[in-house]
Design brief:
Blueprint lengths: L1 H7 L13 H29 L25 H15 L5 H27 L7 H23 L7 E3 L7 E3 L4 H19 L5 H21 L1 H7 L10 H19 L8 H18 L6 H4 L1 H20 L9 H7 L4 H21 L5
Antiparallel strand pairs: 1-2
Helix pairs in contact: 2-3, 2-9, 3-4, 3-9, 3-10, 4-5, 4-10, 5-6, 6-10, 6-12, 7-9, 7-10, 7-14
């Protein structure tokens, strides 16, 4: 909205041309989403307290977490609201990739909202059934696959898989492209959801991943840089950097209230939206496989749960003291702050490793 207004004034004064630059508007998006979160956050937290929208801590988790019971939840509304509004303000809304990532993210947020609302109303840690949640996520994933394929049109990368470490390698996937997108979005959204177990852990790691993909979408749309780095060019993808920048700003703003001891939790409305959002951005940037590396911390958390479940079912023994992985280290004696800080460091290392692949071709 502001993009259209301010660029239309460039004929009046040349200084308004600066708003045509994606990098400038991405910086504005980061700061705008951050300050929206800071300003709206206290009011929203107090409103949630008055409406008794409180977190129910699962009994099978670490016992010292029971003191967190009653903390306001569904703070993901603040995150999603901040970066969606910011994107609408600063992005070029004629760009169909922008609308694709926005709508997919909001759809995942809606699934999380329904799940959280059921938990709050029933005062328990059980919302939508696993079958219901996965069914809805699959529907959104399929729609996302068709949308990205349609926006790409007749481009060489449309419906194809880009392979990291190889120059310009594209593997046509045909009809398999759509279930592939579903797997990417389901994996990303649920991995972030599993990571959201300690104050600030998931949101801090998400800020790191979103910042990394801000670079990916920008270089994918920059013909000269894409050619130099030998990566798949995706015309129009650069505008999505405004979206990911807004996601970074909203994440940092939410972290202000979510750091230990947390004043509010994001809930599934936040974790599913953030995971689905970064997943669809990876699809748009043609860096789907690199999401496993950039989001390596989320992958480790998800793998720890799968390994624990399989081991217990097949061997009757646990590999970790408790899953997801962050609880294992808590039970080893690490403090919550130590776990979160060290896991953020791991997230940064994974992100840097992902960025290094841009030149390893």
């Amino acid at each position: 909205m502001l993009f259209a207004l301010l660029t239309s004034l460039s004929d009046t004064w040349f200084g308004f041309n600066v708003f045509r630059y994606i990098t400038f508007r991405t910086g504005l998006a980061i700061s705008t989403a951050f300050f929206i979160s800071l300003i709206v956050g206290p009011w929203l937290i107090e409103r949630m307290r008055s409406l008794q929208i409180r977190q129910s801590i699962r009994e099978e988790g670490p016992q010292h977490h029971q003191v967190k019971s009653g903390t306001p939840t569904m703070g993901g509304v603040l995150i999603v609201g901040s970066f969606v509004l910011t994107t609408l303000l600063w992005a070029d809304l004629r760009n169909r990739y922008v609308w694709t990532v926005l709508l997919v993210t909001v759809a995942f947020a809606a699934i999380g909202f329904a799940d959280d609302w059921i938990k709050v109303r029933k005062h328990r840690n059980l919302g939508l059934t696993a079958r219901q949640k996965f069914a809805l996520q699959i529907l959104v994933g399929l729609a996302a696959g068709f949308a990205v394929r349609a926006v790409a049109g007749g481009a060489a990368h449309a419906g194809a898989l880009s392979v990291p470490f190889f120059k310009g390698v594209l593997i046509p996937m045909g009809v398999l492209y759509f279930p592939f997108v579903v797997i990417v979005l389901l994996g990303a959204s649920n991995a972030v959801n599993l990571t959201d177990g300690l104050d600030g852990l998931a949101i801090g790691a998400m800020a790191i991943a979103a910042a990394t993909y801000t670079i990916f979408v920008y270089v994918a749309d920059h013909a000269r840089i894409a050619n130099y780095l030998q990566i798949v060019p995706v015309p129009g993808a650069g505008e999505v950097a405004v979206f990911t920048g807004a996601m970074v700003g909203a994440a940092l703003g939410f972290l202000w209230f979510n750091c230990h001891p947390a004043e509010v939790f994001m809930g599934d409305v936040g974790s599913l939206a953030l995971g689905g959002g970064i997943g669809i951005v990876a699809v748009v940037a043609k860096q789907e496989l690199l999401l496993v590396l950039v989001g390596g911390l989320f992958v480790l958390e998800a793998l720890s749960v799968m390994i624990q479940v399989l081991s217990f079912r097949l061997r009757g023994k646990r590999v970790f003291r408790m899953a997801p992985l962050h609880h294992h280290f808590e039970l080893l004696g690490w403090t919550e702050t130590q776990v979160v800080t060290r896991f953020w460091i791991i997230a940064v290392v994974f992100a840097l490793a992902g960025l290094s692949t841009l030149k390893l071709r």
